Amino acid sequence: MTTAPTTSRLLRLWQAAMRAEGLADRTISERPAVVERAARAMRCEPETMTHDSIVEWLGSAASAGTRATYFGALRAWHLWLLRTGHRHDDPTALLRTPRVPRRMPRPVKNAHLEQVLATPMWATTRVMVHLASYQGLRVHEVAKVRGDDIDLVGGTLRVTGKGGVTVELPLHPAVRADAASMPRGYWFPSPTRPGEPIRRDSVSTRIGEVMRRAGVAGTAHQLRHWYGTELVRSGTDVRVVQELMRHASLATTAVYTAVDDDQRRDAVLRLPVIRERTAA
Question: Is 133 found in the same domain as 21?
Fold first, then answer.
């Protein structure tokens, strides 16, 4: 008699399958975490969830965005179970993808970024701010930057982003200057994991602390919003912005390219004034 794989083994097998597909490390680690969290809430094994229990759990999520993230993980899990013969039905099959309200861009203002950069901080934290604002990097990308990723002759920065896609971005002068004092290995090595970079949360925390001390309400990711918004405001074609921000679609780029009050006001003021004739 063959012993059925344990739940932990199934999750490990799923992670191995995702790794073989070339999915991002974040996806490989976060999807199983969502599945385990859901199973604990439903008081069942991850491979025995029911349609009703999934509906109830998704309904308890704090926000539409969280529901969509959870649903995506559960759908991927059950499709894998079905494909590999560990289940013969998919309890998510009759569920529609949760609707997510359109996100609004939240870039920091130029004056706020000036305040942040004028605030005393560790040199490495300043480099993090530069990478987020002048290169538009996500926090997990900032964490993994290495000196070897910089090509000073070609003026490029090599970045591996979502989905493991690697691209070369034009190097901003501020980051070029930073490179002179940074190591060839990881720029932000972990103090507790030799040979590894710091975690993404550490980048978020350090940038967030500086912003709070500067009196600026915002997050590290809003520096990326600033990057996209300022590219568009400078007249950069939106297709170029899409490439620089490494988005799969223009619809995603639009989230980061805010049209602010000043732009709307300027547009209205540029309308010609038509002289109205006085009725005879």
Answer: no
CATH of the domain at 161: 1.10.443.10
Q: Using DSSP, state whether 197 is helix, strand or coil.
A: strand
- Give the structural domain span for 259: 110-265
pLDDT in tens, 123-165: 999 999 999 999 999 999 999 999 999 999 999 999 988 777 8
Phi-psi label, residue 55: left if phi above 0, alpha if psi -120 to 50, beta otherwise: alpha
pTM above 0.85, yes or no: no
* CB contact at 8 A, 177 and 195: no
Same domain, 42 and 143: no
Q: Residues near 165 by Cβ (< 8 Å), separated by ≥ 6? A: 246
DSSP symbol at 186: B
Q: Residue 85 is which amino acid?
A: G
Q: Reduced to 3 states, what is the DSSP secondary structure of residue 60?
A: coil
